[in-house]
Amino acid sequence: MSEIIATHKWERFTFRERMARFAVFLGFAIALSLSISTVEVIPEFLYDAPTQAADLLVRMWPMDFAYYPQGIHEAMLETLHIASLGTLLAIVMAVPVGIMAANNIVHFSPLNWLAKLILVSSRSVNSLVWALLFVAIFGPGPLAGTVCIGFRSVGFVGKLFAEALEETNPGPVEALTAAGAPWFSVFLKGYWPQVAPAFWGIFLFRWDINVRESAVIGLVGAGGIGMVLDTALNLFYWDRVSVILLSIFAVVILAELLVTYIRKRII
Amino acid sequence: MMSDQNNPVGTHAKRSLKIENLVKEYVPGKPILNGISFEVKGTSSVAIIGASGTGKSTLIRCVNKLIPPTSGNVYVSGENITKLTGKELRRARRKIGMVFQEFNLVERLSVMENVLCGRLGYVAPWRAWMRKYQTEDIDLAFELLESIGLVDFAHQRADSLSGGQRQRVGIARAIMQEPHVLLADEPTSSLDPKTSVEIMELLLGLSESHSLPLLINIHDVELAKRYTGRVIGLANGGIVYDGSPAGLSNENLKEIYGGASWLE
Fold it and tell me: A79-98: per-residue pLDDT in tens?
């Protein structure tokens, strides 16, 4: 055995793979330069930005806390009502659609696809766009906001609920079917106990998101704190804007804390 | 103990499971079960043995139509269940109790609720939802839990029990159906040897006390020989042995499982 056996040759990527990776990087670089040229940065405005920001902060200070009981408090409560009612509306719509989308429960693929279509269309439209739509239908106010939040959340809640259903252990379901249980009982005792923690988790998480979203949709007239913010911005009441932003921040933090606490208790 | 006691002995005599020319093809033209026929009556217990993949689980699931057979008939106490669908099928399934290898309990429900799940075929869904079970059902559930030694665990969640305890709950759930036959699909495969023996004794005891024909899929040949009155060996889609456990020779086992070295 005097001859040396050829030493092993090893490369992480083949030539083709290297070229493919290079092409992807090149594509990113081209896309980046194209977007920068489209944005059309005006240098004067960019240099001016720090001064403007400092000016804004100065105008925001001191905060007009006296305005909170006059104009903010009620709008804030309205925001919370919009978020909560909207989430409930979403749940009512999402449970049947979620069940229809779960292919281990509904063994009829056209229905699965229909459900997925509903869920995707709910998610593909931004909540501001939903808000504009419903403001056009119901007129400005909290009703438009609530329905907007509901329709926007169906896709989220329904998709996650359907996924939780699809991940359930089929064993208990088989056992209840073998006992001759009707469909609703099988769902109730076979599927539901398995998905209940996930379901309440999704519900709380979506409520948490909706508190934040409903603060924004008021900007287009869908009620709540956003409408107050819009007015203050338009009238250049910067000392009020800062109080509104601070109260939104406080409410979001409180919602977060509450949701975390409840999740710990139920799961 | 159960309402059956009031029945005349004649109805018990009718309790039977009869399988006639059962064929199951998952892929057309390639039957996994090919013309299976046998009958089980009274309190007799039958073990089905066979290598993995010979269709033991398929056979037992064809009995309650969890898997629909391709052709052939299954009679439970004289009723042909293969043609039934919908509500009639659900009614027929109540007569067939089933015990599973992985227990198939609803983990997050209490032991009591799992046992009561055996009544879901009788109870209206809204009653199940409101947990308004009939008093007789609750009494029966407590009696059963008492008899399997788990009455102290009634309010514990099923996932807090050991494997043997879970299987006992699974068996109680099947008996809650007041079935005419009892099927067990590898009931001891997930359990240690001592617990396996206890579970076999429980199954046999219940078959005796409730006059139930018992059909068990089982891997453990020794356990089958020790506890059942009759052994059916499956190989290549057909029955290659049907007789007493004592008559099961090494030749038969070779035919059922293939090869010989494992027997030495």
Answer: 999 999 999 999 999 999 99
Domain limits for position A226: 64-266
Q: What is the tens place of the pLDDT at every residue in B39-97?
A: 998 888 999 999 888 899 999 999 999 999 999 999 999 899 999 999 999 999 999 99
The reply to whether A55 falls in a domain is no
pLDDT in tens, B175-228: 999 999 999 999 999 899 999 999 999 999 999 999 899 999 998 899 999 999
Under an 8 A CB cutoff, do B104 and A196 touch?
no
Q: In terms of residues, how long is chain B?
A: 264
**pTM, two decimal places:** 0.83
CA distance A176 to A157: 27
Euclidean distance between CA atoms B69 and A79, whole angstroms: 58
Closest CB from A179, A182, A184 relative to B118: A179
Asked if A172's CB is within 8 angstroms of B120's CB, the reply is: no
Residue A11 within any structural domain of the chain = no
- Residue B65 backbone class (left: φ over 0; alpha: ψ -120 to 50; beta: rest): left
- Residue A133, domain member (yes or no): yes
A99 CB-near residues (< 8 Å, 6+ apart): A105, A106, A161, A162, A165, A187
At residue A21, what are phi and psi to the nearest 5 degrees?
Answer: -65, -40
Per the structure, the count of domains in chain A is 1
User: Looking at the domain assignment, is residue A208 inside a domain?
Assistant: yes
- CATH number of the domain to which A135 belongs: 1.10.3720.10
**B106 closest CB neighbour out of A172, A177, A182:** A172
Closest C-alpha to A127, from A93, A95, A155: A155
> How many A/B residue pairs have CB atoms within 8 Å?
82
Q: Is residue B263 within 8 Å of B250, Cβ to Cβ?
A: yes
CA of A154, closest CA in chain B: separation in Å? Answer: 25
Q: Report the number of secondary-structure helices (H) and strands (E) in chain B.
A: 10, 10
In single-letter form, the type of residue at position A114 comes to L
Name residues whose C-beta falls within 8 Å of residue A59's C-beta, 6 or more positions apart in sequence.
A236, A238, A239
